[in-house]
Amino acid sequence: MVKITDVARHAGVSPSTVSYALSGKRPISEETRRRIEESVRRLGYRPHVGARALASGRSNVLALAVPLRAGIDVPVVMRFAVSVVTTARQYGHDVLLMTQEEGEEGLRRVTGTGLVDALVVMDVQLDDPRLPLLRGLDRPSVLIGFPADSSGLTCVDLDFMAAGEACVEHLARLGHRVVALVGSPPEVYVRGTAFAQRVVRGFTAAADRNRLTSVVRPCEASPAAARAVAGQLLREHPALTGVVVHNEAVLEPLIDAFEELGLRVPGDLSVTAICPDELAEAVRVPVTSIALPAAEVGARAVELLMGKLSGKAVPEATLLAPRMTERGSTGRRAVA
Q1: Cis peptide bond N-terminal to 266, omega within 30
Q2: How far, in Å, CA of 7 to CA of 42, rounded?
Q3: Angstrom distance (rounded) from CA 27 to CA 29
Q4: Cα diameter, the chain
Q5: SS3 call for 132
Q6: Could you tell me which of 213, 152, 154, 144 has the C-alpha nearest to residue 178?
Q7: What's the pTM?
Q8: Segment 111-149, tens digit of pLDDT
Q9: What tens digit of pLDDT does each residue of 265-310 get?
């Protein structure tokens, strides 16, 4: 492994001069700088990450805390993670992915050792136990998600409450009077996961505003659970004609289950969803949906962190407006 002393010997300068040239901490003549850069290139020298961190006070590493808890749709979460990593690289930062459910302890470990410069935190709960620590850290953080009290925090996400409302408003305009939300797995609601709770609030508020009969049903992420929920909904609400799905894993199995029970989509039943566009387009009956802007949210989170690291003022709340694309799964309610 090439050392800084090797570069110094090759360039004919002292190791401290090489260090100053690479860190920019002291002025070096242009001729000397060029000679050092040429030696670095020829020898293939790579500064040690730990030494570089000590010299600059920065590790150029961000932490992405995304505990893979029960009920989480991992493929969707990875869309956010890829966006965070890709955007961080554009700013010269690497990303440490934290997937264990360690809560405050994990955040303390990576920040207390100086391993990371800043944090992106996902799977935010309405009453998230990590919030007091995040508010008191000497490292900046950005939450992908909005807790019940976001004061003193920087948060970015899709406006999930508005997304739930938009799905119901679309169905109401088409004349549907009995609607259901097939939501995330039960454990997601038990934890008080913020985005899931906000969809429920938006769905319920819009249904009440339009004087619709509405029901919310959590659903495990399996075809068997989708069949069970579809059967239960039709037994309890035989006049059901509109469904909102906020559970990517059961979108297609749910449509199949309703059709097995004799309902055609969209002839007898209109279906909307909150999910990635690619998923909505790939279903046998392309689904009218609110896009899940994982790429944009992940990029915004990193951009906000970079602003905070450079000392700039950034907005505390960034809510992305829902964008609906109408496809073949919704139509006017059939009137007998």
Answers
A1: yes
A2: 9
A3: 7
A4: 91
A5: helix
A6: 213
A7: 0.82
A8: 777 788 999 999 999 999 999 999 998 889 999 999 999
A9: 999 999 999 999 999 999 999 999 999 999 999 999 999 999 998 8
Inter-CA distances, 81 with 104, 142, 203, 279, 298, Å: 20, 14, 28, 18, 7
226 backbone φψ class: left, alpha, beta (φ>0; ψ -120 to 50): alpha
SS3 sequence of 210-254: CCCEEEEEECCCCHHHHHHHHHHHHHHCCCCCEEEECCHHHHHHH
Q: Are 240 and 230 in contact (CB under 8 A)?
A: no
Task: Name the token pair of 187.
Answer: 């454990």
- Give the CA angle between residues 202, 203, 204 to the nearest 5°: 95
Angle between helix 74-90 and 294-309 (nearest 10): 40
What are the backbone dihedrals phi and psi of residue 62, each rounded to the nearest 5 degrees, phi first?
A: -105, 145
Question: What is the SS3 assignment for 8?
Answer: helix
d(CA 39, CA 10): 6
Between CA 33 and CA 310 the distance in angstroms is: 26
Tens-place pLDDT, residues 186-244: 999 999 999 999 999 999 999 999 999 999 999 999 999 999 999 999 999 999 999 99
| Per-residue DSSP letter, 175 | T
Could you identify the residue written with the tokens 């990576």?
110
Q: How far apart are the two ends of the chain, measured CA to CA in Å?
A: 80
**Antiparallel, parallel or unpaired: β 324-325 and 288-291:** antiparallel
In sign, the C-alpha dihedral spanning 36, 38, 43, 49 is: positive
d(CA 220, CA 12): 67
The alpha carbon dihedral of 87, 62, 91, 125 has a sign of positive
Report angle CA 173, 175, 179 to the nearest 5 degrees.
95
Structure tokens given for 189: 């609601």
